[in-house]
Amino acid sequence: MLTVLDPDEVRGSAHLLVEFVKPESARPELPAGYFAALNRVQPRPFRTSADGGGPFFDFEVLHPVNLPIVRHFLKVDQVTEEHAFSEDEQAEIREEARAGFELLERYDPRVVEAIDLLVGCFLCARESGVGGGSFGDSLGVVWFDPSPSWDAVDYAETILHEATHQGVFLRDMVRRLFVREPREMTGQDALVLSAVLKTRRPYDLAFHSACVAAALADFFAKAATPERSRKFLEPLKPTVAELRSKDHLLTDAGLALLGELERCVADLDELH
Predict the structure, then answer these.
(1) CB-based contacts of 69: which residues, under 8 Å, 6+ apart?
(2) Would the pTM of this model clear 0.85, i.e. be above it?
(3) What is the mean pLDDT of the chain?
(4) Which are the contacts of 203, defined by CB distance < 8 A and separation ≥ 6?
(5) CA 98, CA 195: separation in Å to the nearest integer?
(6) 23: closest CA among 11, 40, 9?
(7) Which among 6, 143, 154 has a CA at the least distance from the CA of 68?
(8) In the sheet where 141-145 sits, what is the strand order?
(9) 30-33: which pairs have CB atoms within 8 A and are 24 or more residues apart?
(10) Which of the two residues, 28 and 171, has the higher pLDDT score?
(11) Nearest-angstrom CA–CA distance, 191 and 201
(12) What's the CA gap between 166 and 5, in Å, rounded?
């Protein structure tokens, strides 16, 4: 397990942000304090569960609080009922997501603990079934757009995929992983083959892809589905090697996480 998904590490990073945002206040309980801090520093707030218990799936795309972030996620000027899921669809999404979380719990309960710390809201909005995503300017909230054909395994994969992005974003926010700003990593000298999309992408995005591929390869390896694990492991190897060849773009914190990726590749090779 990468440390970006270790609940103790996540808790420590979240506390750093909370202390920075509210340095004179008592340390609030996590995860609520973390989500409150994010909603103070990020341009678009998100809603969280009133009782703070378990994953919160928000289907109210037309809620006034949600409109700005839905427009941002979907890259649309106007949000309409067409972006909302029906009540029957909502019930199915909740049921399949519950089953997906059960798979993740059997894989590693500590990963589920980290997800609960990292993600305050799964904001469900329809946009051609693209699956959803996470954005570096919107920590704590995941856009969720599942396909009707997904089963519990697909839900588990997507939840883990997005939680890994969230963990890397948080680490980068509080410790800084990259020497350059994102806009400075778009030149040819900073492009790296993505382990997920299989195209050459800016260094920071390829680094994210490597973390996601490592997390998913480990999940599927330990879920006794080696074929699906290899689908992520094989493209991960050249990505990690190329990331190492350009490691001057990483800070000490980034180098430490790259070392974790290299150890993960070696451990997964042994499993296979």
Answers:
(1) 44, 45, 46, 123, 138, 141
(2) yes
(3) 94
(4) 178, 180, 185, 190, 191, 192, 243, 246, 249
(5) 28
(6) 40
(7) 143
(8) 57-58, 121-124, 141-145, 131-133
(9) 30/117, 31/116, 31/117, 31/118, 31/120
(10) 171
(11) 5
(12) 9
